[in-house]
Every structure is written in C-alpha cells, then in structure tokens.
Amino acid sequence: MKTVLITGCSSGYGLEIARHFHTQGWTVIATMRTPRTDVLPTGERLRVLPLDVTRPGSIAAAIDAAGPIDVLVNNAGVGLFGAFEVTPMSTVRDIFETNTFGMMAMAQAVLPQFRSRRAGLVINVTSTVTMAPMPLVAAYTASKAAIQGFSTSLALELEPFNVRVKLVEPGYGPGTRFTENGSERMQGLIPEAYAPFAQAIFASLGNPGAVTAAADVADAVWRAANDASGRMRYPAGADAVALAAQLGLS
C-alpha cells in the first residue's frame, strides 16, 4: 500500500486529490494550515496533519509525523489578481513564499528519504498560466513559472537515484476558492486607470468556455502518480488539455 502526502487539503484541488487517492486505496496524509477533520473521513488510511509550507519548523514536524511516504503532491498555493504596477513587493514576496519557496522547501524535506530508498515521486501542481500569457496575474504567473523551471531541472538531477518529478497544470477553475482565498491581498490592486481593461478581463472570466474542475486535477495527479513512463507534464481540465495540444505540449 502506497502513501501520499498532499499539501493544501482544506478545500479545492487538495481536498479532491486526497479524497481520490483515499478512494483508490492509498494511505493519505492530508495537510493544511488549520486542520479540519470535518472535510475528510479520517481513519486508518487517512490522517490530517497541520502544515504551513512557509515555516521550516512546521514542515519538519509534518514530515516527521507523516513517516515514510511514496509520493509528495505539492498543491498548496495562493492566488493573486491585480495590476503589477500597484502590487506591493511585500505581496509579491508572500505569493512566492507559498507558491514557489514552499514547494521547493517541501521537496527538499522529502528528498533524503526518496534518495536513500532510490524511489519516490514529487508532483508539483502549477497552472496553465505558464503555457500562455494572461493579464493581471504577472506575479502569480512568475511564482508558478519558477516551479516549472525548477521541476524540469530537478527531474534531471534526481534521475540517477530513481526519484521522479512531475508537473500537473490545471486550467481555469472558477469553482475553486482561488479568488476568495486571496481577496484580502487583492484589495486596491485594480486602480482606476486599469479599470476598463480589468472589467473586460473579468467579464471574459465570468463567461468561460471549457474549464477545469477539482475532479480533473485529482485525476491528473492520480495519473501522474501511477504513470511509469518518462512523461513530465499533465494538463488538467478540458481547457488545459486543449491549450497543451494547441501548443504542442501534450
């Protein structure tokens, strides 16, 4: 029986990923900053642990409590919409602390056990904003693009130890709490000069075509975890799959 540790499981993608792996018979370590046992059926094969990926002490405690794992799913992330011109650099740093440095720190924390066993898999959940440009998410895109580059390089570095790294790239998910979770830090990030442009963008987001559901991301992560091929990238959601095919990335 394999064990997966997933970050950011209180809602959205992480919650659905945890549920999916549990249903498929894996042992699941579901982590979140504030543990919520009401959203997951904790039991012999499912544990909920506190974890803040921006705090080294929290990471060390969670890894120690989890014990040996086979797969790390780096899903925890925060969103940001707004004009970069008025985005405080402190806010940019906050985004990178979770989306970039948090993922890196989690990978670094599990690599010793993976390397020593010569087995293990790191799955980093990024975004299709790394495939094609989108306005008003410059800082967010940068935080995810950094993980794309990090992952492809790290995969080569770990290949001699039979440790793999993969990327899951969700498309636009209007059903997630992306905006809600970042609403406070987004206040005042659409100044008057940008308002007409921003309104057009928000209107298009309010009437999307194909989109990504949490179940799509869970399925893509599941396929990545069980694919023994050398495939690196897994677009998640109908819009992501279409975009990847259009760009020749599928």
Please provide the ordered H/E string of secondary-structure elements. Answer: EHEEHEHEHEHHHHEH
The mean pLDDT is 93
The tally of domains stands at: 1
How helix-rich are the residues, as a percent range?
40-55%
Describe this structure in words.
With 250 residues, the protein is α/β, with parallel strands linked by helices. It has one domain: Rossmann fold (3-Layer(aba) Sandwich). It is 46% helix and 15% strand. The chain is built from nine helices and seven strands; from the N terminus they run E-H-E-E-H-E-H-E-H-E-H-H-H-H-E-H. The protein has helices spanning 12-23, 56-66, 89-117, 138-158, 178-181, 183-186, 195-206, 214-226, 238-246; strands spanning 3-6, 27-32, 46-50, 71-74, 120-125, 163-170, 233-236. It has a seven-stranded parallel beta sheet with strand order 3-2-1-4-5-6-7, sandwiched between helices. Helix 1 crosses helix 8 (214-226) and helix 3 (89-117) packs parallel to helix 4 (138-158). The longest helix is centred in the middle third of the chain and has 29 residues, at 89-117. The two termini are 30 Å apart. The model has no long low-confidence stretch (mean pLDDT 93).
Summarize the structure.
With 250 residues, the protein is of the alpha/beta class. It contains nine helices and seven strands. It starts with a strand and ends with a helix.
Features:
single chain, 250 residues, alpha/beta, Rossmann fold, 7-stranded parallel beta sheet, 9 helices, 46% helix, globular
